[in-house]
Design goal:
Length: 176
């Protein structure tokens, strides 16, 4: 698994300050290796890339505080397939596994029409820990062959603080 820390100075060539919107202090530009998107991310959040066919990147943070690395912002690329024949099929699958969810609402991301929804679910049991509630907000960006999802996941008490990070990252999101 490839894990590295983002930094304003280094990210093995994936981050630079050359293009796009102004980068807040302590943030770095992230460019997807497949050139599907670029965005800004906090320089002290850990990043994992390309962990599966659909996975593009996950930013893990915050680096410090009462629950370090308990929040994640992930980007996935899904092709339309028998698993997800449409954006509505993806939404239905996510809602089916949720304790609570909101209807999807329209949102613009880099001038593209997207859908955003919130849900609460139990995290999977891992490393001997029981499942815990998490809050997610998900943005779906459709295109002709599939869709990108940008998902913010955090424990309920951390979600409001890290949602500001998510919103800044989404506002910086750029598509080719």
């Amino acid at each position: 698994m490839r894990k590295i820390f983002l930094s304003a100075c280094l990210l093995a060539g994936a981050c630079s300050k050359a293009q796009g919107p102004a980068i807040p202090d302590g943030w770095a530009r992230y460019d997807d290796p497949g050139r599907l998107f670029s965005c800004m991310a906090p320089g002290d959040w850990r990043v994992t890339q390309l962990q599966s066919r659909a996975h593009r990147v996950t930013f893990h943070g915050p680096a410090s505080g009462p629950k370090p690395m308990a929040a994640a912002i992930a980007v996935y690329r899904h092709e339309f397939s028998e698993n997800y024949a449409s954006v509505d099929a993806y939404f239905s699958a996510q809602a089916a596994g949720a304790i609570k969810f909101t209807p999807a609402v329209e949102r613009l991301v880099d001038t593209k029409h997207a859908k955003e929804f919130f849900l609460e679910r139990l995290s999977p049991a891992m490393h001997g820990k029981p499942p815990e509630p998490v809050v997610e907000n998900v943005i779906i960006l459709p295109d002709s062959a599939g869709f990108l999802t940008i998902t913010h996941t955090a424990p309920p008490d951390l979600h409001p603080a890290t949602k500001k990070v998510f919103d800044t990252l989404v506002e910086s999101f750029q598509l080719p």
